Amino acid sequence: MTPMMESVLAFDVGGTRIKAGVVQGSSVSSLLIEPLDEKEGADGVLSIIVRMGRHLIAECAVTAVGISIKGIVDPQRGTILDVKEALASCIGEPIAERLAHEFRLPTVLENDARMYTLGELLYGAGRTANNLVCLTLGTGVGSGVALGRRVLRGPRGISGILGGHITVQTDGPRCTCGNIGCLEALIGTAALVREATIALATGRHSSLRDGPLTPQRIFAASAAEDRVARELVQHFAELLGAGIVSLVHTHDPDLVVLGGGMIGAAEQFLPIVQSYVTAHIWTLPGRRVEVVAAELGDAAALVGVAAFARGFDAFL
């Protein structure tokens, strides 16, 4: 078996859930998903990972462990250097070392959006691209960048991953990072629900009044021609487009890949985003930067961190 086809126990640890699976190449088997209480302490988070992992390796032999996790990560020490809100209790914990001891296997740790980018670069929408920007859309907005098919990491582990924290609106809402008007603060799930609440408070008729407000319901109502929902999605897409324009101007990618929990509704907003980006970027005459949906979905970060665990080391 070639090294890139060896089985890896992979985890994707977000703010609200933990995903785990056994990865071989781009294939994920025995996928498990468990909710994560944002108030869970470091020991609790690690105990959930260990329990899920032991269940998986009881059924399949693996050669390494990879953990994709939100926040600024030191991959050499296998620890989180900084993260906002959920998982803050894990800052400074020797996560990779503790899990290597538990599983008795080589263990690596990296930022989740960077690993999502790596998965799409190797096996997904970016597999034929040399230069790539990837955004993950969900509770927050993560990002990753690949140049010359090497993934940006930088001297402090920050390069490429803070695309969700570029300023889009100087008088906008405060972000969890402390900045004002970040892309994440304007288009994350909480922001979309907040904007819907404000719109409904004006008394306008909308099917959104008939149940709890969620991004999924907002996108579904937009697809059903609900006028309020369509306006919300239009605004969301234009803000996302504005953020992408800045990232294109910064990194000059061949392709922009959008993933994360909201990408299931891509048909509702992707055409608007593409039109906005095409109309506003400054690039070579006649050149078009495509904005596409990720192909690996929820598996992308698992696939990416498994490649890292097998020895992928093309980082900048």
Structural account:
There is one protein chain. The protein has helices at 42-57, 95-103, 112-123, 183-187, 189-200, 215-223, 227-251, 266-280, 300-309; strands spanning 8-13, 17-24, 27-35, 64-69, 72-74, 79-82, 107-111, 132-137, 141-147, 150-151, 255-259, 290-293. It has 316 residues and is of the alpha/beta class. It folds into 2 domains: 3-112 and 301-309, Nucleotidyltransferase, domain 5 (2-Layer Sandwich); 125-294, 2-Layer Sandwich (Nucleotidyltransferase, domain 5). A 5-stranded mixed beta sheet has the order 3-2-1-4-7, with helices on both faces. Strands 10-9-8-11-12 form a 5-stranded mixed beta sheet, with helices on both faces. A two-stranded antiparallel ribbon has the order 5-6. Helix 3 (112-123) crosses helix 9 (300-309). The longest helix is centred in the C-terminal third of the chain and has 25 residues, at 227-251. The model has no long low-confidence stretch (mean pLDDT 93).
Number of domains: 2
Label the structural class: alpha/beta
> Average pLDDT value?
93
User: Biggest sheet, strands in spatial order?
Assistant: 3-2-1-4-7
Q: Give a count of the beta strands, DSSP E runs of length 2 or more.
A: 12
| CATH architecture annotation of the largest domain | 2-Layer Sandwich
* The CATH class of the largest domain: Alpha Beta
> What coarse outline follows from CA principal-axis ratios?
globular
Secondary-structure element series: EEEHEEEHEHEEEHHHHEHEH
In terms of DSSP E residues, the strand content is 15-25%
Q: Which fold name is given in CATH as the topology of the largest domain? A: Nucleotidyltransferase, domain 5
**Poorly predicted residue ranges:** none
Q: Roughly what percent helix?
A: 25-40%
CATH superfamily of the largest domain: ATPase, nucleotide binding domain
Rg of Cα set: 19 Å
**Biggest β-sheet strands, sense, barrel:** 5 strands, mixed
Instruction: Determine the N-to-C terminus distance.
Output: 28 Å
SS element count, helices? 9
Oligomer: single chain
